[in-house]
């Protein structure tokens, strides 16, 4: 197998599972551990992955347009449930993402609401609506249309909302909420802390995966709106951790 073919397979495996170990890659690709380590180092230099203990996690995020087409029916169901929680006059934060984009479309004409968002596409939707609109500024991540960085973090330190809807790239087996970058982790953590009712809106594909940075834990949210099915072991852990799961 050529190096380019190995690299493509490695990226595919990491994208599907969130994290892979060196030994697993070597076995699947039938090459030495040293070869895999060289491959991972090349992918790291290319900015595609990050190395973690004994393996690697994906770094490159899926683009906004790619996300718009993934699991759209699930996202609409989650968005409809989330929208039902918004009350007249609420200050609402909508995290950058395609599920929150669907929420925006469903709450835009609720009387008296103010929406704060760091998502350019959500802002475009709300420009023609009755909602008061506030943009969380900062550097624009062009691939996702979201605004991040110290300016966004500082702004959200000073804002309090009645309700917030956030997303996440990954949720691990211990129900930690994860994201690829420190800027996203800090911003999401701040928003969650400063909202009276923070909700996590995630479809089942986000569970059981790894990412580089921890944001917080499912128990830190008022509720987790999802279509994720749980096995008996997961149900026991959810109950013990006092996590409020809201299924759609």
UniProtKB/TrEMBL annotation:
Keyword Ribonucleoprotein: no
Keyword match Transcription: yes
Highest taxon of source: Bacteria
Gene Ontology molecular function, alphabetical: DNA binding; DNA-binding transcription factor activity
Keywords: DNA-binding, Transcription, Transcription regulation
HTH deoR-type domain: residues covered: 3-58
SMART domains membership: DeoRC (SM01134), HTH_DEOR (SM00420)
Record-linked InterPro entries: Carb_Metab_HTH_regulators (IPR050313), DeoR-like_C (IPR014036), DeoR_HTH (IPR001034), NagB/RpiA_transferase-like (IPR037171), Tscrpt_reg_HTH_DeoR_CS (IPR018356), WH-like_DNA-bd_sf (IPR036388), WH_DNA-bd_sf (IPR036390)
Protein name per Swiss-Prot or TrEMBL: DeoR family transcriptional regulator
Provenance organism: Anaerocolumna sedimenticola
Taxonomic placement: Bacteria, Bacillati, Bacillota, Clostridia, Lachnospirales
């Amino acid at each position: 197998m050529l190096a380019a073919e190995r690299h493509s397979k490695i990226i595919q495996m990491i994208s599907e599972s969130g994290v892979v170990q060196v030994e697993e890659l070597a076995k699947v690709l039938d090459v030495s551990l040293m070869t895999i380590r060289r491959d991972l180092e090349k992918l790291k230099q290319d900015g595609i992955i990050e190395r973690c203990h004994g393996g690697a996690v994906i770094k490159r995020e899926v683009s906004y347009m790619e996300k718009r087409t993934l699991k759209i029916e699930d996202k609409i169901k989650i968005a409809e449930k989330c929208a039902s929680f918004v009350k007249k006059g609420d200050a609402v934060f909508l995290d950058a993402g395609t599920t929150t984009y669907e929420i925006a479309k469903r709450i835009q004409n609720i009387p008296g609401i103010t929406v704060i968002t760091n998502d350019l596409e959500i802002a475009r939707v709300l420009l023609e609506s009755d909602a008061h609109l506030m943009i969380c500024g900062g550097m624009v991540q062009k691939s996702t249309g979201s605004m991040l960085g110290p300016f966004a973090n500082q702004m959200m330190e000073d804002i309090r909302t009645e309700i917030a809807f956030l997303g996440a790239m990954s949720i691990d087996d211990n129900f930690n909420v994860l994201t690829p970058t420190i800027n996203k982790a800090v911003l999401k953590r701040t928003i969650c802390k400063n909202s009276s009712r923070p909700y996590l809106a995630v479809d089942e594909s986000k569970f059981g995966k790894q990412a580089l940075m921890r944001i917080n834990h499912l128990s830190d949210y008022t509720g987790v709106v999802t279509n994720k099915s749980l096995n008996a072991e997961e149900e026991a852990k959810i109950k013990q951790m006092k996590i409020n799961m809201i299924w759609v």
